[in-house]
Amino acid sequence: MASSSWGGSEELWYKSAIHASEKEHEVVVSVYNWQPLNQKILTLIDKGIEVNLRKKIYFGSSTFSRLRGFLIKKIFSAADIIRLSKYHPDVIIISQGTIFECMYPKFIKLSEKTKAKIFVITQANSEYDTLPSNCFETGRKLFNKSEHLFFVSKRNLLVAERQLALKLNNASVISNPANLNSYNVSELKVTSKLNMAFVGRLNSTVKGLGVLFEILSSDHWKNREWSLNLYGKGEDEEYLKKLSTFYNLNDKIVFRGFINDVNAIWSANHVLLMPSTLEGTPLSLIEAMLCGRTAVVSDVGGNTELITEGVSGFVAEAPSVFSFGNAMERLWDSKDKINEISLNARNKIVSIMDLNPEQTIIKKIENFKQ
After folding, report:
1. What would the mean pLDDT of 29-49 be, rounded to a whole number?
2. E strands present in the chain
3. How much of the chain is helix, strand and coil, in % rounded to 5?
4. Whole-angstrom Cα distance, residue 238 to residue 14?
5. Average pLDDT, stretch 206-228?
6. Of 94, 251, 305, 362, which is least packed with CB atoms within 10 Å of its CB?
7. What are phi and psi of 63, to 5 degrees?
8. Per-residue b or e along 118-134, where b marks 16 or more CB atoms closer than 10 Å to that residue's CB
């Protein structure tokens, strides 16, 4: 990740790296040099996995600074990755947050130079983006020459085929691993009000939090008994705190910061809210459902592969005030059935989720390597 030191998109490659090392493969991990290093990076080092730290580019706040930072990032990222050729890898696994991140010509040259087998994990995809013309053929070439492509939702895969105008016969869907101590249903503390939660990075553009605050600022929501707990940190935290004050919601919205104990989150909350504009299959949604909680989600990424409207949760057609607001009204009207709906959510995720995706991904790569 370039935007923060850790997130749900990192868990799959992290656990896969550890599993591969335990199977006596030689593993080198290349990540941005976030300081201080995240505890999970330190864990990799403690386990004897070599960690290659790439330059971290700071963008600044002005438009010029952000543009300059973007260009520098592209140049130095390519150079840093090319330097990894000194390891003479048999396999290169790219874990990218969104589908466009690895599509530049210098990476193609690296893959050709090393003769390594290429595998790509894509953690999210935008529903409406198209590839810039200078990346289109590069993307098609990279995905065609890759040994295998892993997507965390079927929807992301289908959107990628549309973006590339290319049938991806070398692709499959993989689960993200849940960050849970157990897969038992979290016991909910008794409360008279509806406790709602958002779990994830505080990025309003991607996660739709500004839209959510606007919905909750309406008179009919202000007159209801509810709370919204936000679990996470991110670049928009100060903006969102000011927005909460602007909408006079400080008595209803609580910024809880990052909490590692997922079960503790769902012992205190009834429902997950995700008005996202872009997703893969969110780890926070998987974890909430495993803990026996329902959700209100927008129809992006793999959300509707897990949430069925009115059965296991509620789906907004779009991450807009109108659509997501209507979905939240359906949630409110169904408060008396929330236990039943939450049980359906739990049963759904248990029936389809791979609980050990790191083993699945390494086994598939081993089979290709042979």
Report:
1. 92
2. 28-32, 50-54, 91-96, 117-122, 148-151, 171-173, 194-199, 226-231, 253-257, 271-274, 294-298, 314-316
3. 45, 15, 40
4. 30
5. 96
6. 251
7. -60, -40
8. bbbbbbbbbbeeebeee
